[in-house]
Design goal:
Chain A: InterPro entries: 2Fe-2S-bd, 2Fe-2S-bd_dom_sf, 2Fe-2S_ferredoxin-like_sf, 2Fe-2S_ferredoxin-type, Beta-grasp_dom_sf, Diverse_Oxidoreductases. Chain A: Keywords: 2Fe-2S, Iron, Iron-sulfur, Metal-binding, Oxidoreductase. Chain A: One of its GO terms (molecular function) is oxidoreductase activity. Chain A: This is Carbon monoxide dehydrogenase, small subunit. Chain A has a 5-stranded mixed sheet with strand order 2-1-5-3-4, with helices on one face. Chain A has 2 domains: about 80 residues, Roll (Ubiquitin-like (UB roll)); about 80 residues, Orthogonal Bundle (DNA polymerase, domain 1). Chain A contains 5 helices and 5 strands; from the N terminus they run ββαβββαααα. Chain A is α+β, with helices and mostly antiparallel strands and about 160 residues long. In chain A, a hairpin with a 2-residue loop joins strand 1 and strand 2. In chain A, helix 2 packs across helix 5. Chain B has about 800 residues and is of the alpha+beta class. Chain B folds into 3 domains: about 170 residues, Aldehyde oxidase/xanthine dehydrogenase, molybdopterin binding domain (Aldehyde Oxidoreductase, domain 4, 2-Layer Sandwich), CATH 3.30.365; about 190 residues, Aldehyde Oxidoreductase, domain 3; about 325 residues, Aldehyde oxidase/xanthine dehydrogenase, molybdopterin binding domain (Aldehyde Oxidoreductase, domain 4, 2-Layer Sandwich). Chain B is about 30% helix and about 25% strand. Classes of the chains: A alpha+beta (about 160), B alpha+beta (about 800). The interface between A and B is large, with 63 and 58 residues.
């Protein structure tokens, strides 16, 4: 049995401290240790993006990161983006524009999109398609995902303008 | 009284019933990350199962040594066929009347086949233990080509008596499974002997995989105290799974509860019963603890239900003017090591006999030979209704080949052969009765929408420019007019394992006027909780927002055959409407009592019963619901509930016209989709937003299949496409923008006229993309090139045609 490591993580603003085998994958930490089952496992090879979370401000596929690599990191998962009472703009936009069907890719998709809109608040359709290419969806054909993200971008921008 | 006054319109809109683009009720939990998929399930003391799998495609298993694995801390048990044999569970029946090894019984027949099942404390220990199981194999000759398999002396299925008939009649060879025929062979041969023109071609529809984003999995929990087994899993047919589990385990059906929680896409992959389910059930019975098994992606692609793999040798006969007189098809179907196709019992090749398509073809003959090879078993309907996509691809390619033979425009050739509107209900030469259609209207609308004539002109100019060396890009116009056959199906000819393919709906109206309805189907992304409530809202006058839809729990939902083959709307949707009508009939009696008039003197109006001729006297459904629970009404039982089991009188026949305009780079083989127009006619439209979403998704699956996705093997039977690195799933970047359109030709026999739509875009999309590739090269002599049309294969087409100079 490999020696366990002492791990500290902040996930959705909450601190966690535990011992884990260095080979434990971050997605298993989140799903099985911390009971955050929003991020999903779809491929184990970094292709599908269902496990996407934000690690220290970057979109990361948590199925191919060891929890040891995330030691000390600040993480955000879909559960940290919004609540049922105060949903993230993207969570509302995906529902409004039918940006999901089976829902399996949705947490990763929305988590990635939230980062994309931080990086590029005014994306074109082409930039969205390129920026979301790390997240696969088998149900929607992406058209309404793109539409949802465009709608969320304009809403976020309108809110920003109103605030200024 | 049926005039749409503003007041009445408002009441109709408030119901959010048929035709409303109602937002989905499922989305709140999914967008919050609060879905409940099988791998999210965590039970106290839950163990994890994992498989030792064969690295060989064909080998004898000489010995299995589990000692080292058992010695690992955290390993609870390792099961092999020898452990399952005393229970009779080392083999299981398949949906196709064959049987399949649960764990390798003396030999393996495909790479990745289950050899041993490890049960351990967690998934990491289980994975470690899998590595420690020592299996000694003796390699055997591998057969990956079905044509060779039919000639080979190598016997794949040593467990079968070669002289004994199979589940579907006599077997011609030890690697042969069945021959299935439809149509009139002699008459068809006669037509071909006398035909003006005959076009002949081999059309191969390659092996692929439904690859839902969530893989297959289950959690089995045997409660030894009360003797009840609960099985959660990714099941597209939970009730059928319960019956199968009961039949093979001997546990009485009332002691088994099967639950399909949220399912992360199915597309046919989650219809069948897999070794993982059986082993997990056994493991839970043995250990008395819950056991979870979830495939990884490689296991999913390599071992659970593939799709297609049909070699379709075709001939089409026509007059000089292009009127089709006959169709002939012989299909060689590669079923892999076990026949685990998911088809209705009487249809071992599914509904392949819909291969006369949208055309009035007076004489036809089809034969299908199923063959064993050293490939994974399966043969499921990947977003289609039982081999319909193979049939549609076949006829839509044959039409194009005939157009080349006749030097005719392929759009015009289709038009002159379409079944006319006045011919419905139409009896096809291969035995189906098409319910309704208006193909010419759809076709003309599609051609006009894309500016077909201008496109052909542009294409001709492009060919000239290419010949002059001014461009290296060609233009392809991919046409398709498909007819589906969905909604299996009438119990008289459709069953799975002897279970008639009806479906069901049970409604309970609560005293305060809201309701719960339960169905025998199960959503995997289709939005049933949204759309079935809409059907009911229009039928019973209670707002869709006040109706909860529940599916997937066999302890509570009425028996049904599940969701695949676009059958939910045609069958369970019909059951909903019929159950709703029973509610309405009782509500009418209650309303009449409350209004002190005769039953016949009240009529239904949106959300209430009104006295005929006196609309100001009425009782709303809400008032009626309360009365059902608080009034003693003479001759009427209290309560307001209904159940309907619906056996459809016929299939439904959705159709559509798709056009794909594609640019092809002759030097790189890359393609770019400039335009994709999809017109669907699925009869009555329940929720246009959801229909459109289904079309986008199905077209993207079709894009994948046509342009790159395949399950490929080398000569040793190694699966070369076991990860998403090799198995093509399009990203947003590769996926084009789609234009959707529709016509509405209701089904005459469905209670609300709906036909089903989820699979149409996959069925029609594949030939549209493929025909675009072929069409781009038509001017240079291309007749047929097999899918998938990845960049290399397109480059090869150009190279073979001498276009690289």
């Amino acid at each position: 049995m490999p020696k366990k490591m002492h791990i500290e993580l902040t996930v959705n603003g909450k601190s966690h401290e535990f011992l884990a085998e260095p080979r434990e994958l971050l997605i298993h930490t989140l799903r099985e240790r911390l009971n955050l089952t929003g991020p999903h496992i779809g491929c184990e090879t970094s292709h599908c993006g269902a496990c996407t979370v934000i690690v220290n401000g970057k979109s990361v596929k948590s199925c191919t990161m060891f929890v040891a690599q995330a030691n000390g990191a600040d993480l955000t998962t879909i559960e940290g983006l919004g609540t049922p009472d105060a949903p993230h703009v993207l969570q509302t936009a995906f529902r409004e524009h039918h940006g999901l069907q089976c829902g399996f890719c949705t947490p990763g998709m929305i988590t990635r999109a939230s980062k994309l809109l931080e990086e590029n608040p005014n994306p074109t359709e082409e930039e969205i398609r390129f920026g979301m290419a790390g997240n696969l969806c088998r149900c929607t054909g992406y058209q309404n995902i793109v539409k949802s993200i465009l709608a969320a971008a304009s809403e976020l921008n309108a809110a920003k303008e109103a605030a200024e | 009284m049926n005039d749409m006054t503003p007041e009445r319109e408002e009441r109709v809109a408030g119901l959010k019933g048929l035709g409303c683009s109602r937002k989905r009720v499922e989305d709140a939990r999914f967008t919050q990350g609060k879905g409940n998929y099988v791998d999210d399930l965590k039970l106290p003391g839950m163990l994890h199962g994992d498989f030792v799998r064969s690295p060989y495609a064909h080998a004898r298993v000489k010995s299995i040594n589990t000692e080292a694995a058992m010695a690992l801390d955290g390993v609870v048990a390792v099961l092999t066929a020898a452990d399952l044999a005393p229970l009779g569970l080392h083999w299981m029946p398949t949906l196709a009347g064959d049987k399949q090894m649960v764990l390798a019984d003396g030999k393996v027949l495909f790479q990745g086949q289950e050899v041993a099942y490890v049960i351990a404390r967690d998934r990491y220990v289980a994975a470690d233990a899998v590595e420690l199981v020592e299996v000694e194999y003796e390699e055997l000759p591998v057969l990956t080509d079905p044509f060779e398999a039919l000639k080979s002396d190598v016997v794949l299925r040593e467990d079968l008596d070669p002289a004994a008939p199979g589940a579907h009649g006599p077997r011609k060879h030890h690697n042969h499974i069945f021959t299935w025929e439809a149509g009139d062979k002699t008459a068809t041969e006669q037509v071909f002997a006398e035909a003006d023109v005959v076009a002949e071609e081999m059309i191969y529809y390659h092996r692929t995989h439904p690859c839902p984003l969530e893989t297959c999995g289950c959690v089995a929990s045997m409660d030894k105290v009360n003797g009840k087994l609960t099985l959660w899993g990714t099941f597209q047919a939970p009730h059928a799974i319960r019956t199968v589990v009961s039949l093979i385990s001997g546990i009485e059906e009332h002691n088994i509860r099967v639950i399909s929680p949220d399912i992360g896409g199915g597309f046919g992959n989650k219809v069948g019963a897999y070794a993982g389910y059986v082993c997990s059930v056994v493991a839970s019975i043995v250990t008395g603890q819950p056991v979870k098994w979830v495939e990884d992606r490689m296991e999913n692609l390599m071992t659970t239900a593939f799709a297609r793999d049909y070699w379709m040798q075709g001939k089409i006969a026509a007059t000089k003017e292009g009127k089709i007189t006959g169709l002939w098809c012989h299909t060689t179907a590669d079923h892999g090591g076990f026949d685990a196709c998911a088809d209705p019992t009487k249809f071992p090749a599914g509904f392949m006999n819909i291969c006369t398509g949208s055309y009035d073809i007076p004489t036809a003959y089809l034969a299908v030979d199923g063959v064993y090879t050293n490939k994974a078993p399966g043969g499921v309907a990947y977003r289609c209704s039982f081999r319909v996509t193979e049939a549609a691809y076949f006829i839509e390619r044959m039409i194009e080949v005939l157009a080349i033979e006749l030097k005719m425009d392929a759009a015009e050739l289709r038009r002159i052969n379409f079944i006319r509107k006045d011919q419905f209900p139409y009896q096809s030469a291969l035995g189906w009765e098409y319910d309704s259609g208006d193909y010419h209207t759809a076709w003309d609308k599609a051609l006009t929408a894309v500016g077909y004539d201008a496109l052909r002109k542009e294409q001709a100019e492009r060919v000239e420019a290419f010949k002059r060396g001014e461009t290296r890009k060609l233009l392809g116009i991919g046409l398709t007019h498909f007819t589906e056959i969905v909604g299996a199906g009438p119990v008289k000819n459709c069953d799975i394992l002897g279970l008639g393919m009806f479906d069901s709906c049970e409604i309970r109206i609560h005293p305060t006027g809201s309701a719960i309805a339960r169905l025998g189907t199960i959503s995997q992304g289709q939005g049933h909780a949204t759309t079935f409530a809409q059907i009911l809202a229009s039928e019973i006058g209670i707002p869709a927002d006040s109706i909860t839809i529940e599916e997937g729990d066999t302890d509570t939902a009425p028996y049904g055959l599940g969701t695949y083959g676009s059958r939910s709307t045609p069958v369970a949707g019909a059951a909903s409407a019929m159950a709703g009508r029973k509610i309405r009939a009782k509500a009418q009696m209650i309303a009449a009592y409350l209004l002190e008039v005769h039953d016949d003197d009240v009529e239904f109006d949106v959300d209430r019963f009104v006295v005929k001729g006196a609309p100001e006297r009425f009782k709303t459904m809400k008032e009626i619901a309360f009365a059902a629970y608080n009034q003693a009404i003479p001759g009427i039982e209290p309560g307001l509930e209904a159940v309907s089991y619906y056996d459809p009188p016929n299939m439904t026949y959705p159709f559509g016209a798709y056009i794909c305009v594609m640019e092809i780079d002759v030097d790189t083989g890359e393609h770019q989709i400039r335009q994709f127009y999809a017109l669907d006619d699925c009869g009555t439209r329940i929720n246009p937003m959801i229909i459109e979403g289904q079309v986008h998704g199905g077209l993207t699956e079709a894009l994948a299949i046509a342009m790159g996705q395949e399950i490929a093997y080398d000569d040793m039977g190694n699966c070369k496409t076991g990860t998403l690195m090799d198995f093509f799933l399009p990203t947003a970047w590769e996926t084009p923008h789609y234009t959707t359109d529709h016509t509405v030709t209701p089904s005459p026999h469905h209670p609300i006229g709906a036909k089903g739509v989820g699979e149409s875009p996959n069925v029609g999309g594949v030939p549209a993309f493929s025909n675009a590739v072929h069409d781009a090269f038509r001017a240079f002599g291309l007749r047929q090139s097999h899918m998938p049309h990845d960049h290399w294969r397109i480059w090869k087409i150009a190279d073979d045609l001498g276009l690289h100079g």
